[in-house]
Amino acid sequence: MDFPKYNGTIHPDEWINDIRIYFKLKNINDRDCLKIVLSFVDPIITLPNRIDSFEKLRNAFKEDISFTVFKRTNKKLLESLRYIPERKGGNTSKFISNFRKLCYNSEVNDIEEQKIYFRNALPKLSNDNYNNCYDYFLEFTKRWEKIKSMNHLVKEIEEIVTVESNLIKNESIVALKHVSTGKYLSSIENLCYTTGIRKHSSQVESDLNALWKIEFSGELAMYNRTPIRLRHIKSGKSPTTDHREVCCAGNKIKLSWEFKHSKLENRQGYLKSNDIINLRICRRDTSLNLFLRSHDIQFTIGNDNFQEVVCHNNERLG
């Protein structure tokens, strides 16, 4: 019969439940099953005489020194377990499964104790990178009091991971959508203004030309702290400003953008997908204080009409 012997390297409850299901599928009743099961116990496990029920067998397994060693080993593994964020190659589902299994094996059943082990498994941030990394530890601590069960614990960490997955990382590919028109900031190759500086123009359109790489120092961008740069994916250039026309000026002009929430002046936290923001030119060596905006005025190049994008020093944006 192909079934592993019990030798103290599996939780007694798990082994007994599995073998009972196995024999039930074979249409063997519990009394006959118990007799057969006793023959599947490794001789290194010392059993008392007259075990006439599975409950007595279960208790005998748990009183054996092997079970003490088994629990201690799993508790050490639980203490050393560390969560690796998915953006760094981790697997949240696998981590949750390992955590729950180790709690089960080490018989850590109290939710308060489980929360402590879980919190200790989360990444800790040093002072050097605190302002540039998502703080799982802090976010979990905020939810501490309302977690009352293992299922609730898993639900909360899944929500934390979901929030983290929506944060904008350095060199992420983004699109900038204009709220009032629903169109996207784009830069179209070989399409230039016909007046003014006659440089590469940016319009609010909706196609693959609307993809930008966002660049900044650190891992995440924080409100009111992190200047950002935007580099067009197709052309590899950055949008900057000269007078009232938005053009692409490449690497020679070191120009960044400050961003702030469109409604919350002192918004804290990280920039994430679907945030509604205002962009302002950030250049410390000049008095530039210009905001990126669009408006209802259109212009024509060839036979096509475009929605214009401008920079100006009025913070009240359209």
From TrEMBL:
Name the PROSITE patterns for this protein: MIR (PS50919)
Domain of life assignment: Eukaryota
Entries under Gene3D superfamilies matching the protein: 2.80.10.50
Repeat recorded as keyword = yes
Please provide the record's keywords in A-Z order. Answer: Repeat
Using the record's annotation, list all stretches that form the MIR domain: 165-217
UniProt-recorded name of the protein: MIR domain-containing protein
